[in-house]
Hints:
By secondary structure, this protein is an alpha/beta fold. The protein is 43% helix and 9% strand. Its cofactor is [4Fe-4S] cluster.
Amino acid sequence: MRAPKPQPRELQARLRAAYPDARCALDHRDPFQLVVATILSAQCTDARVNLTTPALFARFPDAASLAEARQDEVEALIKSTGFFRNKAKNLIGLGQALMARHGGRVPSDPTELGALPGVGQKTANVVLANAFGVPALAVDTHIFRVARRLGLSKAATPEKVEADLCRLFPREDWIELHHQLIFHGRRTCEARRPDCAACPLLDLCPTGLGQIKDPHLGVRLTVDPGPSAPRPAVAFPRPGAVRQDQQAVPEDPAGAPGDIASEASRRSPRIMSAPQRIVSLVPSVTELLVQWGLAARLVGRTRYCIEPRWIRNTVPAAGGTKDPDLGRIKDLAPDLVILERDENPKEVAEALTALGIPWLALEIRTVEDCVAALRELGIRLGVPQAGELRAAALEASLKGRRRKGPRALVLIWKDPWMSAGPDTYLGDLLRQGGFTPIGPDRYPALSDEDLEALAPEAILLPTEPYRFNRRHQAELQKRFPHAAVHLVDGQALTWYLSRTETGLDLVKNLPPR
């Protein structure tokens, strides 16, 4: 059966009947209070914000007082909302900007509003709609989930979902629809247990009718006749063992040593179904999950997980790749944390095990490892078709004999020089692209004399992790006049899984000089 076409008029009529009390959930008296409350609501519940703002507004009732505030005093008042240091900085900057540019008043112009500290597109839309009555449709996590389940959008980003909704519904209905969809997401269409049996939109919902897989959970739902939530209509395959640090997980008598599925399932029954609350500590894996349409499942990332750009404003950061904030990760209550052996230390996996948090560790040292990891991730995350499609295409591109090409070196750092050795992912990427990787294995530090002794015929300078630029390229070209020195896109070269195909194309198409 084909999924029904969206019926905007009928859908909104039912939403009006079901949620006549739908309104802005953030308590406020004026535009200033609303913009402050909306900034505080990032990665925080509206209820928590409403408990926080009375004391804040009693101490700082307007832009003028907030502009003169001390950072530590604001932090103390808003600490419970999370990310309080950055929020305090933005709030003080907001007060100063309002005083300097707008006479202490919140502007109603979208461009001017969006230029204020801490105010992105979502915040601006909320303020425009609720403080000034300007039609706008901010897409938060509830609207993102509900719109996709209702078949109103197939987009993988909040911005594109917003554009789809704005095309479907009349402009004059946007403000009302925003609140109705949020209420529906909170009261009926919850993230993990949507109450389809009690849903007033069930016959309009292709997800609730089982006609499409739930884009949030990744499974096809069936409706229980009783009051409980719908259940998956299919069983998940049990994933096989994945590469991981053997010392991080003790040997499990119920399963093979190092089998993350066995160990995690013994700790928590959630692991046997596709994870719904994922923390990714690997930048390229974060991007891959978004490419697979799993953005709604991401509840945490590292501060280096910056692609796609919008994820910086929608998914909270939990430290770095080498030093993740384990307390923050625990608070996010993930049912899976994704690691990679070279990027994340063994101690991180050990700490997660001690906290009882399931984790999966990849090991990417060759392009063929990417093929295996794509399949494993697809199975583990409940999207085997996406994993197989990507893996098969990458596998096909690796067929054929590889010529022994120019001696090539990838430099990844300066002061001291550091290179990626032949036994790394970057080394194999060179090999697959027709070069001969040289230098010591792993990621050695090299002196100037070491570089000269290697006598490379090609040198690649990726723009990350070190920010190599044209000046560095010119300096090395002068030192190695007979070598081809290439400044290349660092993400294309180093981000495995999400950009492996792009990296292969880059290396294969490098000119000899």
